[in-house]
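If you are new to this repository, start here. Below is one unmodified record pulled from the training split, so you can see the exact layout before writing a loader.
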Amino acid sequence: MTHAATPATTGMDGEQAAQTDGIHLVVDALKLNGVETIYGVVGIPITDLARLAPANGIRYIGFRHESDAAHAAAAAGFLTQKPGICLTVSAPGFLNGLVGLANATTNCFPMVQISGSSERHLVDLQRGDYEEMDQLQAAKQFAKAAFRVSRAEDIGRGIARAIRTAASGRPGGVYLDIPAAVLGEVIDAEKGASSVWELVDAAPKQIPGPDAVDRAIDLLAGAERPLIVLGKGAAYSRADEQIRAFVESSGIPYVPMSMAKGLLPDDHPQSVATARSLALKRADVVMLVGARLNWLLGHGDAPQWSPDAKFIQVDIAANEMDSNQPIAAPLVGDVGSVMDALAERAKPGQITTPAAWREELGAKSEANVAKMAKRLEAAKAAHPMKFLGALQSIRDVLAENPNAYVVNEGANALDLARNTIPMSVPRHRLDSGTWGVMGIGMGYAIAAAVETGEPVVAIEGDSAFGFSGMELEAICRYNLPVITVVLNNSGVYRGDEVSPTGDPAPTYLKARHDLMIQAFGGKGYQATTPDEVASTLREAIAAGVPALIDCIIDPGDGTESGNIGHLNPTGLTQKK
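And here is the target side for that same chain:
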């Protein structure tokens, strides 16, 4: 129902005509379409919208910076399969939010950024209005789609289009521009009520063709060294049971990408994550499930992959096929429908995995696990504390709390945590993703806590944490069960670089992060040993209140750019 926004007016017949405005219509349309939370930063011209939403049953989570609010909305989209909603002011606030919108689009997370804007008649003539900017044109190149609403009566239509576009097909970020005058426009309440509607089947299933399914089955049936790669699209699909049934019935080894960890438990006997390099290099038929052959998989190129490898790709977007390598068997459809079709059309025993291939990967896994065990054992007693020493303690405590969500970003903090901390529950790991972007940490952590109510452990490099660290205040203000663990080696990559001048080295950082959260009313800890990391983390999770553990790591423990140092340019300035 549309709510009266202004006093009723009296017509010539003496009857009062109820009225509404654009702000009320935005809230009505969002509520009608099941939106429960808005993430944002208030200001001109959207402050009253943020005030009205909670009064009508939509929770508003206020941030200190728009990019963090946008990252939170993106993470909410991944966790719920419904577009997360981010609300920003115009121009600079819009641009800040655009970072998260672009990242959501790159990672295929459904999200809608709604921003107030200046009036078109002023913007188009470049008359120098307050925060003047053609936001629609700016957003188009970074979002899946961008729309502008020019009349209050079109607000319901605009929100419906934005939500459907964000959620359907390949999910992504959508920008919705609503000028200040449209938010304040007053129209007849009855006309307003008829202009908003609830979407029907916003993200319909897409079923693959039988011929395409049979082609993929034949390819897998003839493989000597088959491999399945599970991407975050597989996790997003929530086709957990179908995926597990296919993996186990076929016996095919699988490698999970980082945000697909937990879709099947990391200790599953068919997981070959610990033999990933060999699996990729030797596989002759590779089935990509919700994963793309982008830079994270070496674009499918040799030497990371066999030059003779044949690829099967499960993706809802047909234009993703052949983007890097020829796709021998494209399976276009949503993951759940594709997995159902494979199960229905494959004959019993048609797809099997040769024992020699399983044994080859098993032997390599055992060797790598033994090698890693030596590194972990050495790190336990190291002083100053090493990354791996702290991460082992975090791993052990998380094993006691499998319901906890893990947010992870950084360089070494990301690479080492991904390889050290196993996941047993799907969609419980959120990290830097396809772009490898830093700054997602606190936004993702807030969204995970708000959307699930479960404890969240954000494992942060000290550099990465700095991008969104002020959101500790928001975490404390809303009393969210977020425990931030900062792996503090006093630098970007490492903190022991010597400066050739009187200024600090470019990579050097200095902070007492535990004191930061205390300023906002949270609990701060400092840990210098693995035992202290474990005890403080247990205490913080049990308390269920905002906390931060500043883990003091050896400044010399770290590798520049983590596992992607090869992307650094080389030349005369190359580090000796």
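Two things worth knowing about this chain: Residues 250 and 349 are 8 Å apart (CA to CA). The chain has 22 helices and 20 strands.
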